[in-house]
């Protein structure tokens, strides 16, 4: 087609567009305008969805449904050569924690002899939750056993955020304090992030500061501190001779205390990590394909034997109080994993209590020691 013909055709099309539109019946023009308006609304919606906040996802909290309470779930289908009567090796967290505490105590004594100072750990406890009080007692006792000085600020549940921040600030400024932590959870009326961010970066022995978490996420960076619970999970695996490279690890729960930092730490060890949360579809199926399962959902007996593949390694971070009239305290502690079922499927498993808990406290003592060594120029 020649250039003149193309120009003539284009001109004809331009002239014909308004003629066709003007000849539409009034009702059709109304539909056309409505459709155009709807298109603009969709475009605006797309623009809103492209904002930076929408990329971060909805701010909703994981709420786990309690597991059903029928008789024990069936075990996975039998495979050739599988012995379901076998019993998993129990990973002794108490023994591993004792070894860490002995090493910390030895280095604390060396520090005292070298510079005349010992590490100091300060804890801020808000409210009167029995479990939080119990955890703090264990931490204070752990400090006493290894020679670390401990300080405790106890505040009432109805105190203000500013009062908590003031307590944190005083410990930040105290040169004899090398680690500061705020016992979680805080009362609901408080802004947890605001309070945790008030902790000095170089005293954040819990590893919750955004810079510590961010540096953990970047393999080229080294955080000052890593979450004590995450370090405990890794220590239990490594001390048990579990190979992590290339293994499929499923973490149940994605909190900043356990799930997130443990996932980041495992990826540094070249594991393949799946994170399961309250909105995950088919969590049993995902977990059943895993070589290692780490559960930190905070739901008693959530993980049944049928969730595990034969020979999986199970690290149970859950510490859930369950009513028990036979107990002196009226309750007993149980994990996220149904131990009675899992012990016949897994190759190795941590008990509750006596598994992750003692090692977590030992890691807190080790983090506090590391902080003091940096201050006194004794770091490796």
From TrEMBL:
Pfam families: THF_DHG_CYH, THF_DHG_CYH_C. The keyword NADP applies. GO terms for cellular component: cytoplasm. It catalyses: (6R)-5,10-methenyltetrahydrofolate + H2O = (6R)-10-formyltetrahydrofolate + H(+); (6R)-5,10-methylene-5,6,7,8-tetrahydrofolate + NADP(+) = (6R)-5,10-methenyltetrahydrofolate + NADPH. Residues 227-374 form the Tetrahydrofolate dehydrogenase/cyclohydrolase NAD(P)-binding domain. Residues 91-206 form the Tetrahydrofolate dehydrogenase/cyclohydrolase catalytic domain. Residues 65-77 have a biased composition (Pro residues). Residues 33-80 are annotated as: Disordered. PANTHER family: BIFUNCTIONAL PROTEIN FOLD 1, MITOCHONDRIAL (PTHR48099:SF10), C-1-TETRAHYDROFOLATE SYNTHASE, CYTOPLASMIC-RELATED (PTHR48099). The keyword NADP applies. This is Methenyltetrahydrofolate cyclohydrolase. SUPFAM superfamilies: Aminoacid dehydrogenase-like, N-terminal domain, NAD(P)-binding Rossmann-fold domains. Catalyzes the oxidation of 5,10-methylenetetrahydrofolate to 5,10-methenyltetrahydrofolate and then the hydrolysis of 5,10-methenyltetrahydrofolate to 10-formyltetrahydrofolate. Keywords: Hydrolase, Multifunctional enzyme, NADP, One-carbon metabolism, Oxidoreductase, Photorespiration. Belongs to the tetrahydrofolate dehydrogenase/cyclohydrolase family. It comes from Triticum aestivum (Wheat). InterPro entries: Aminoacid_DH-like_N_sf, NAD(P)-bd_dom_sf, THF_DH/CycHdrlase, THF_DH/CycHdrlase_cat_dom, THF_DH/CycHdrlase_NAD-bd_dom. Homodimer. One of its GO terms (molecular function) is methenyltetrahydrofolate cyclohydrolase activity.
């Amino acid at each position: 087609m020649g250039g003149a013909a193309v120009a003539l055709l284009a001109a004809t099309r331009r002239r014909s567009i308004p003629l066709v539109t003007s000849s539409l019946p009034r009702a059709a023009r109304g539909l056309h305008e409505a459709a155009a308006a709807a298109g603009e609304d969709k475009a605006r919606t797309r623009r809103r969805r492209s904002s930076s906040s929408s990329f971060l996802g909805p701010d909703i909290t994981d709420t786990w449904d309690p597991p059903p309470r029928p008789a024990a779930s069936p075990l996975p289908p039998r495979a050739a050569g599988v012995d379901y009567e076998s019993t998993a090796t129990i990973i002794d967290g108490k023994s591993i924690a004792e070894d860490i505490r002995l090493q910390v105590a030895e280095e604390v004594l060396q520090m005292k002899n070298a510079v005349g100072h010992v590490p100091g750990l300060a804890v801020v406890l808000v409210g009167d939750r029995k479990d939080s009080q119990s955890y703090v007692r264990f931490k204070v006792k752990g400090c006493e056993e290894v020679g670390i000085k401990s300080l405790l600020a106890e505040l009432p549940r109805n105190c203000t955020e500013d009062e908590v921040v003031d307590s944190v600030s005083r410990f930040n400024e105290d040169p004899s304090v090398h680690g500061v932590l705020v016992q979680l959870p805080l009362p609901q009326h408080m802004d947890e992030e605001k309070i945790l961010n008030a902790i000095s970066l170089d005293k954040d022995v819990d590893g919750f500061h955004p810079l510590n978490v961010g540096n953990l996420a970047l393999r080229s960076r080294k955080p000052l501190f890593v979450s004590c619970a995450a370090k405990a999970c890794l220590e239990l695996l490594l001390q048990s001779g579990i190979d992590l490279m290339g293994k499929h690890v499923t973490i149940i729960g994605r909190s900043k205390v356990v799930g997130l930092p443990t996932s980041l730490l495992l990826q540094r060890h070249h594991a393949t990590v799946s994170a399961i949360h309250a909105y995950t579809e088919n969590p049993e199926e995902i977990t059943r394909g895993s070589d290692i399962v780490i559960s930190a959902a905070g739901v008693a007996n959530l993980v049944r034997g049928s969730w595990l593949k034969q020979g999986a390694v199970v690290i149970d971070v859950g510490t859930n109080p369950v009513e028990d009239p036979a107990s002196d305290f009226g309750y007993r502690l149980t994990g996220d994993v149904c131990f009675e079922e899992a012990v016949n499927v897994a190759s190795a498993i941590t008990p509750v209590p006596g598994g992750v808990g003692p090692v977590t406290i030992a890691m807190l003592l080790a983090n506090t020691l590391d902080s003091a060594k940096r201050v006194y120029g004794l770091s490796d």
